[in-house]
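Appendix B. Raw example, untouched.
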Amino acid sequence: MHPETHIATEPSRHKCLIYDGDPSEQLPVVVPFLTDSLQTNWRCLYLASPQMVDVVDAALVTQGVDSASETKRGALILSSDRSYLANGKFEPQKMIDLLCSLIDDAVKDGFEGLSATGDMAWEFGATSNFDRLLEYEAELDKVFREKPLRGICQYQRGLVPAKAIRDALVTHQSAHIGDLYNQDNLFYIPPELLLGKGSGATAAKQGEWMCQQIIRVLQAERKRDDAMKALRASEEKQRRLAEELAESNRHLERRVSERTSELKFANEQLESFSYSVSHDLRAPLRAIIGFSEALAEECGQLVGEQGRKDLDRVLANGRRMGELIEGLLTLSRMGRADVKRARIDLSATAHEIVRDLRESDPARAAEIVIQPGLHAAGDEVLLRAALTNLIGNAWKFTSKVSKPRIEFGQTGPESGHAFFVKDNGAGFDMKYAEKLFGTFQRLHKVEDFPGTGIGLATVQKIIAKHRGRIWAESLPDQGATFFFTISAES
């Protein structure tokens, strides 16, 4: 890569904020931005509706800002002015000229520059005006590079068109997504590429930019691997805490209470960490898949046969990673979900699950027996998810059996009225049974039976939330039976 063609990726002063819900959700980002600017001698401009101007003014006062005094000395401008709209029509160049004039005035008046933020739905006016957003933000990005300007463009989902949200991500190198701050937004495209006319030089830079993006995502992947190691270490710590709890002195109430609190805290931290890591990985993963597909389509003939094979491997592993991330998010959501107990018809639920399986693979001929009249007191959504995993596993692991048979039923009182899902599929060696319910633990090769190794961990978490237990009995090539109980207590 030649230095003269490298496109800089350092964090920009041109940020955006994309948020859901009430407009007041912008305050955790906007108020610190304004207070910091005031303290460092930047003139501040906040442009929004009269109602939000009042809300921001009150929030600044709460943070100890004398807004009346700051306004009087020209350091703070809270405005709802829309005079720059020509008969309701937004003209990008007119707005840019206005901002340049405000920046120059701020510097002339002794300020470091201009800090500007505002509600883009108010700034643009009519929804149709957002058709020029891409042009405006790309041109505005140049102003941020050339003049002492820093700012946050605010986009509220629900008020701003979906295309405008996409355009905002493309034109901002740094982005706040709700409470998360992405200093290096992987969707960003520099304005010189975004507004290029498709010349040979521009096309070459676009290809180089995509390669840079892929390299940055691969670096993020390495960080992800380190995070996954930390996650597994946290899970091992959780298991040790659980064992310590089981072995602790049951007659010492205070000690049991302390151990329970430790386990709960560790579990909450693990779920929060799992959700955060998985959620943050989705956007860069989508970027690497998207850029790899674009590179394969546009430059496939240039990279040669080995290059195309490498791209295919990147895409295959990216999609596999996406499945793992979605599984982690599902596992985390199950851990945080509240149990809403009701009387559930498990037999009817099992029939619905089997019907969906047959519709997804109508060529499969399998004998499925569902014991009628099975009920339980539990959360309908969570128990449906558990049964879907168990029956789905039985369906998967009987796929290579000539006469597959799956049974869902309940044992008698001598076995504790446990529910069970039984199949005559691949089975497994019981010496590996302790690995069944661990995250990413698999007893079969992916090429033989696809999956992520998260399903049974999810089932165990659901059963635990119902104060029950789950276990399995099996022999290799002789099928498997999964038993589970559900406590009648809430």
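End of appendix B.
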